Structures are given as structure tokens and as C-alpha cells.
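DM from R.C. (forwarded with permission)

"hey, sorry to bug you on a friday — could you get me a structure for this? deadline for the figure draft is monday and I only need the backbone to look sensible"
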Amino acid sequence: MKTWKKKEAPKEKILEISRKYEIDALTASILARRGITSGKDVMFFLEDDLRYQHNPFLFNAMTDAVERIMQARDEGEKVLIFGDRDVDGVTSTTLLYQCLKDFGIDVSWRLPAKDDPYGLNEQAILDFAENSGSLIITVDCGISNVKEIALAAEKGIDVIVTDHHTPPEIVPQPCVIVNPKTQDSGYPFCDISGCAVVYKLASALRYARSRDYNTEHCLFGISVSDDNSRAKLECIKVKNMVVAARFTREFSADENQTALQKKVMEAAHFMAGQQIYVWDMKSTAKKIALLFGSTDAIVALDLRDEISKLIPQMKNLSLKQLSSMSKIVRYSDEKSSDMDGFFNIFVSYMQKRFEKEFPEVQKKEEADLQLVTLAALADIMPLVNENRIFAKNGLTSINAARIRPGLQELMTNLNMLGKKIGSTDLSWTVIPSLNAAGRMGRAELAAELFLEENAENRYKIAQKIIELNQERRELGKAAEGYAFPAARDSIQSHNGKLCVIIDERINRGVSGILAAKLVQTYGVPAITVTFPDGDVAVGSMRSCRGFDVTKFLDKFGTLFVNHGGHTQAGGFSFLKSDLDTFRVKAKELSATIELSGSDDTEIEADAELPAKFMTAKLLDVVDKFEPYGEKNPPLIFTSHNVPVIDARRMGNADPFHLKLNLDFGATKWTALFWREGERLDKEFSVGDDIDILYQIGRNTFNGTTTPQLVLSDLQKSTH
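My reply, with the result:
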């Protein structure tokens, strides 16, 4: 029996969140119960403006990558994009290919074919060298390809690695690495997809066309005490909309002239060679004269005058007023200065200036973010931080009927148009179809779907991909037929903590899916191993209950030819001749596995809703927390003493489903309870009051959308 538990949250914390961020009490209570209380975390749940994403130039290696690609463009070099066969790899390949084509670069792409191993392979390098290629950019792979990148260097080929997988102890050299998981990446959020890394690269490349690219700007401000006895000078050096350095000096009227002059010279040195911006030149000039003795000491541009041309409401505002109005400052958990507000408005100004100079970029990024959304969901990226910004924007444009070519045809074939699309719809329908192409050895079909210019051809490719997915399903069912009977014995022989299925009948394309099914059924991590080419064994691993796949696979040491992945999923290969060694090692390591408790028996509710709350407006709250996925599961509510007006079983096969009509006073709600038809007239009947645990969703039929409840559990009310 399931145990229901409402998450706890102090009332004072709920009130604080509600007041500070000007949101309703229900939304504030859900945030508090989910532990989303810091300003930076709340921001990503309440905001969807791309202004809140992280700057691509926070990657320490981003400028090096941009410069090398621009060199390739200027010198007419041949560039190869090498990706992976899954959705993340295909979307990464597509996004970067279209970006480089727009730049006029001689670019081609390549994905692993049929039984090719994961990652950059030697044959691709040799073929590219034969074709006089000079730059390879890996996407969603490359961080483990030490030997291959060394070979590329021998052939005179430079490599840029864009990846998001956990790096090995020894990373490839020589190459430029853009990966948020490397120790020295500089990037503030490590859990973005490979496609998101490529999106950052594309954004940086587009910005490189701006007149402001690599230009140093200096934001200058002086604050003076009321009695003019003290002053504080602050400067922020900005390059590519990133803070490059800060300079602060405090002055006192009783300082000797030598000390004062030294500080002034230090400030002048810091600002040398930069475009200097001030806010409100008239008031700043007086302070400059007070400190420097003359307004001629600094030649500056009044940003307030400039920005008023783009954002008229900023005219006549002081820096202090700006800071109090800044949303970013409001979301900061630390005390922010007026100069922080100045920096934020400067970045907004630079962004608007860039958009005005290159108006076509917004449309391109909108299409890109649909790919980034697919990748985040497919690779089970945590839907927190900027992943939420990406997915919100991707879903918004999809639901606004601005679906990018390729995705439009696939969704048409899957009968998905005409209803509101959420993250779950993409995860359960679109992504499995796209993944099927790679799993069945035809990853190029998924890339061609997005890159094909002819709509009729795209439609045919979409149909072929759906056929491959059906074939994949049949292979998966067949694999379950011989894997599941062996699973219990395997778990027992692996200390009850691991399931290992080794069978040459497993099609490589379904090995990962089969491992996931085993995890779902038996509640322990699972490994599947097959032999696609006879001499090499290829394995997939899936996790559960807090177990880290990558750390576990690392323990196999030199046994693997290669391996990689994330905490939740990984892949590996080894020589078939080492199979017995693998078996022994897997059993040995299984004893070291530590699993957290099962989540099956206890369900935590996000809020208890009384009848008066049960209106269609609840969908607004549900939508606010969309997209749902990893680390952001769908909202679950409870309600008590709800009268059952009507109930009937539905479906053509046992187990039957339940469809209920529930009375919430002013409103009546339809509720579905999947596979629980037998509970009617045993645990409750029409006319009873019940307590329910449920999600709130939409039902679309014949073009009409209505809200409905989807029950997770119910109990007959006892009071």
C-alpha cells in the first residue's frame, strides 16, 4: 500500500517567497516544499526570458573555439562535424551544421554508422585527412577520444571538442575543449546537454560578428558621502558581456596627496584603452571633478542617454532606482551594489544593440532551442537552472505553431498537432522515434530529417523513422522475452544489487532500452551486453536509487576499450575474449554497490487542495512548473472527502481503467485512474467520499481541450 505524505514547509518561508517574488501563495508553497527557495533557483522557475541564461563566453575556452572556427572560414578550410547517434548527438550535429553553413564555411557532418563505436573513430579521421580536411569539431562526444585526437594531430587536423560527458583522468590533447564538466571550464552550470553546449558555441559565433566582440568596455561609477569627506570609485571591465575584472578604491578627504594620486593613477591604468560608460554624465561629472580635479580626466559615454533610445522608460532614472527595479538583483541572494545593477542594464543594452544589428538571430535561436529542448529531455538532463529556460522557450515556440522543419513533419506523422505540447509528450512520443533511427543503425536519417530542405522529402523521412521505431519496439519485446526470465537469477548472483544480462541475441539498438526496462521492473541497476560484430562486446548500463553509473564503470579500469556516460546511463565496450574477466569483475564490484531506499511506497504531495481551489486556473500553476522531467517531477496534489458522482470501468482488456466524475462543489472534474478498474465496488463505490492523490492535466478531443485529473492513488474517506 502506498503512503501519502505532504511535504513540509514553514508558513513564514511561504509568505516570504510570496511577498519577495510577488507570486500567489499556492505557487510559493510548492516552491518551498520542493526546496526551491534561493533566489537563483526561484528565478529559473518564474522567468523564461533568454536574458537569464548563462553567457557562452563564461566558458574559458569559448573564445579559442570561436577564433579557430573564424580562421577556418576566412581561410576556406574544410570542417567536419562528428556527432553521436542518439538524439543529443543528432540535434547537436544539426544545430552546428546549420550555423556553420550560414557562415559560409565548407562544412560536412558524420555520425557513427551501424556498428561503429561511440565517439570519434580513426576511420573518420583518415577519410577526412584524405579529403584535405583541417578542422574537426566533435559534438556530444570526444572527451574520451585521446588516441583518436592524437592521430588527428599527426595528420595535421585541429580538433575542437564540444561535449558534456564526464571527462576521464587524462583528457585528449592537443585540442580546444568546451565541456562544462571539465575542472577549468569556467562555466557555472555543468548539467547541460551536448546540444546545449553547441547552442552556446553557435551563440558565441553569431556574437563574434558584432562590432562589440572582444572589445573591452569599462563601467565607471563614483559614490560620494553626504559631507563630501569620503568617496568610492568602482569600475567593472566587461568583455563579451562577461565581467573580466573589477576595480574599487575608496578615498578620504584627509588622505595625503601622494596616496590620493596613487589611487587615481591606478584607476586610470585600469581604464586605459577602453570605452568608458557612466550613468548620468551630469551628476557623475561633478564627482569626477571632485576626485580628479577636472572633468577632462575621463572621456566617457553616458549610457543612460544611449539606452533611453532603446528602452525609453530608463530615461531620468538613477543607478539606485535601476538596482531596485532590476529583477536579477531581486533574485540575488547576496547584497548587490548599484554597480551590479549598472552591469545588468549594460548587458541588456548590449543584447538589444546586437538584436538590432542582427535581427535574424532571434528566429534562428528559436529553432535551435527546439533542438536543445529535445536533447535535454532525451538525455535526461535535470530540468533546473538554465535547462528550464531552454525548454520553456522550445515548448513555447512549438505551441505557437512555429515548429522547425523536420520536427513539424515528424509531429504531423505522430498525430501530435492541434493540442498543447508538454515535455512529457516529447519524451514519450517524439524522442523515442528519433532515437530509433540511431538505435537501428540509421542515425543519419534523423539528421537528414532536420536538414532536408524539401518538405515532401522530410515527410517521407519522418515516416521511415516511425517505421524504424516500430521495428525497434518489436525487437525490444523479443529481447524482454529471453532477458526477463534470466533476470532474477542474475540479481541473486550479483548480491541482490545488480542485474547483468549477456546475450548475443540482443540487438544493439535496444540494449539501452532493455537495461532501462530491467531497472524499472526489478529496482536495481542493470547491464546488458551483446556482440554486434563478434569480436567486440558492447554494453549499456542504466541506474536507479541514487547509483552513479560513470563511477561504477570507471572501476573496470583497462578492461574496457572505451566507456562513458552520465550518472544515470552509460555505455562501454570490451574484447569478447575478455568476457570471463568481465563476468568476474561485475560480480566482484556488485558487492560494493550502495542503493538508496525504494521510492515506490511513499509519495510526497506538493499541496493539499480544498474544493474552492479546484478551478481551471490550476492549469496556470501546473504550466508554471513545466517543463517536467529529471529533478522536476510533475506536481502531485491531494484532496480529501471528495464525493464520487459517477464511476465506470473502461478499456477492452484486463486490467481495466477507471473513469470517475468527482464533485468539488462549484466544479465537477473528470478523473482517470489507469489499470485500477478492480478497485471499484471493492474499495469504494459511487456515492462514497474519497481521498485522492493526483496530477492535473489536459484532455484534448476533437479539437476541444478540458482539464482533468489523473489519479495516482485513492482511499475511501474515513472522516
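R.C.: lifesaver. The first helix runs from residue 11 to 21.
me: no worries. The CA atoms of residues 126 and 327 lie 52 Å apart.
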